[in-house]
Write a structure and sequence with these properties.
The chain is of the alpha/beta class. Among the domains are: 45 residues, no CATH class; 63 residues, no CATH class; 98 residues, no CATH class. The chain contains 15 helices and 9 strands. It has a 5-stranded mixed beta sheet with strand order 7-6-5-8-9. The longest helix is centred in the N-terminal third of the chain and has 57 residues. The chain starts with a helix and ends in a 5-residue tail after the last helix.
Length: 510
């Protein structure tokens, strides 16, 4: 290899080294530019995040110049700061000293503003004596500072005004057992200042679809007594605690009946789907407001009724009931829908099903053989629908439960009573749904509406039930029946067993 070739290689290598150096410098310049651009973007992102946080903070407040001063409005904060500066400037100029308060004025409503709540100014005071220890019954007491409780109630049955009484309850420390006792207040419930008659007034108007604000208006318009809607809500919460035992007694009353009717309906709970469940039998109605339509609601709230003969619609959750009567009205309504839509075979099957119901709806009883023949007749009608027809499977699954009423005396072939009850309840819910979004609101709704409707069924004013329970907490709306009303469990078992022929003829599908 000559010197010329070596020189050529060296020159080529030098070119390559120069190219590498140029690429390295370009990479360094690109990295620096990249870092500068990233830093600029990060700065912009920080500014945007601060702007977004400020917007979120403003949106979290109710920014309205007409917002009441008690709200956390940003406008109110800015206005209060402005007024404070203005008051300080006026104070420096020799004006009057600013009064206490964030807005440069006194706390509370303006002069002459009546407000929404009653002033709690008692018309009279009653001191209730404490003679003996409520724990050991001895009279060795060291008296302490008394407790004052305000009570608002009608003074008598026909009164047109509400009287405010201040009860001064004596308190004492027992020198023997060390317990602290307080003189009991007559007819007052914890959590509310309303007396028995006023509480009965609230329950009756609530059962007539009145909201808390409407009841507050009635107090002011009819009796000249100003009270806030929140005070009415607190009174309903106190009523729930009082009536809980009566609510449980209603469930016990239904469990003693010969049969029960179930139904459920969808309601709106704070923008979400919720449900009102209802069980009724004779002179008792039991309601449960729940956020779910699952069968677990039955197992949780209606546990004492699950082994009873029941009348239900076609909802699959009722499949856990061993003895049930499928509602004929719901079934015929669905058959009619297909007949109107499709005609032809669907119309013919609907007429046959309607004719069968017309023959048996007024029957009081039938033996097992006749019930089996009726089930077969229903299955023949079901076979008239095309294969794969949705209602055909529904009718085949319902066939074993369509004639339970013929083997359970007094049971109707439909659950119209429960339908009517729950329809009125859903109408009531449209007015009071603002409290159904929370568990306590659903409990208050369930207890109060159940007791009010049961009282109406037995011919008792709900206010009478409230007054009696306050006077005597052990008083019960229902007394135990003289003789058991439920049929024997053996009869239930006979009713519950579907025929083998019907089971073999079709696959049951609810």
């Amino acid at each position: 290899m000559g010197d010329s070739e070596t020189a050529l290689l060296r020159r080529e290598m030098a070119k390559m080294m120069a190219e590498i150096k140029r690429l390295q410098d370009a990479s360094a310049l690109t990295r620096a530019a990249y870092d500068r651009k990233v830093a600029a973007l990060e700065e912009q992102i920080d500014l945007l995040m601060e702007t977004i946080a400020e917007q979120d903070r403003r949106l979290a407040k109710y920014e309205n110049p007409n917002a009441p001063s008690s709200t956390g409005s940003m406008y109110n904060a800015e206005r209060n700061a402005f007024r404070k500066r203005l008051a300080e400037e006026e104070g420096d100029g020799g004006g009057p000293e600013p009064k206490e308060g964030a807005a440069g004025r006194r706390r509370g409503p303006p002069e002459g503003h009546e407000g929404a709540s009653h002033g709690n100014r008692p018309s009279r005071r009653l001191r209730l004596r404490l003679r003996r220890c409520q724990n050991c019954g001895r009279g060795h007491l060291a008296y302490a500072a008394p407790v004052t409780i305000i009570a608002n109630d009608f003074p008598d049955e026909g009164s047109r005004r509400i009287e405010t009484v201040a009860y001064v309850l004596e308190r004492g420390f027992c020198r023997r057992c060390g317990a602290v006792s307080t003189a009991p207040a007559p007819g007052l419930l914890p959590g509310t200042s309303f007396g028995p008659r006023a509480l009965g007034f609230i329950l009756e108007y609530y059962a007539k679809r009145s909201t808390d604000a409407t009841i507050s208006y009635y107090f002011r318009a009819l009796y000249g007594f100003s009270v806030s809607a929140n005070a009415v809500w607190n009174a309903r919460r106190a009523l729930k605690s009082l009536l809980k035992s009566a609510y449980d007694g209603i469930l016990e009353r239904i469990s003693r009946a010969a049969f029960v009717q179930f139904d459920e309906s969808v309601v709106r709970m704070n923008g979400k789907r919720g449900y009102v469940w209802l069980a009724t039998a004779g002179d008792a109605t039991y309601l449960v407001a729940a956020p779910s339509r699952a069968a677990a609601v039955l197992e949780l709230h209606f546990r004492g009724l699950l082994d009873m003969p029941a009348v239900t619609d076609g909802y699959a959750a009722y499949g856990i009931l061993p003895v049930r009567q499928r509602c004929w009205v719901h079934l015929l309504r669905e058959a009619e829908k297909y007949a109107v839509r499709n005609g032809g075979d669907d119309l013919s099957c609907y007429r046959r099903l309607l004719s069968l119901y017309g023959r048996i709806k007024n029957r009081e009883s039938a033996d097992s053989a006749e019930c089996l023949d009726l089930e077969k007749a229903v299955l023949r009608i079901a076979s008239g629908y095309k294969k794969g027809h949705g209602f055909r499977e529904t009718l085949e699954g319902a066939a074993p439960h369509l004639f339970t009423f013929l083997r359970c005396p007094g049971m109707p072939p439909h659950n119209n009573a429960a339908e009517l009850e729950i329809r009125d309840t859903v109408v009531l819910h449209r007015n009071v749904r603002h409290h159904l979004s929370e568990p306590e609101g659903r409990q208050v709704f369930s207890v109060l509406v159940s007791v009010a409707r049961t009282c109406q069924k037995i011919g008792m004013f709900p206010r009478v039930a409230v007054e009696r329970m306050i006077e005597d907490p052990d008083w019960r709306i229902f007394k135990p029946p003289d003789c058991p009303e439920r049929v024997e469990q053996s009869a239930h078992t006979a009713i519950a067993a579907p025929s083998a022929a019907a089971t073999a003829a079709t696959a049951v599908a609810c």
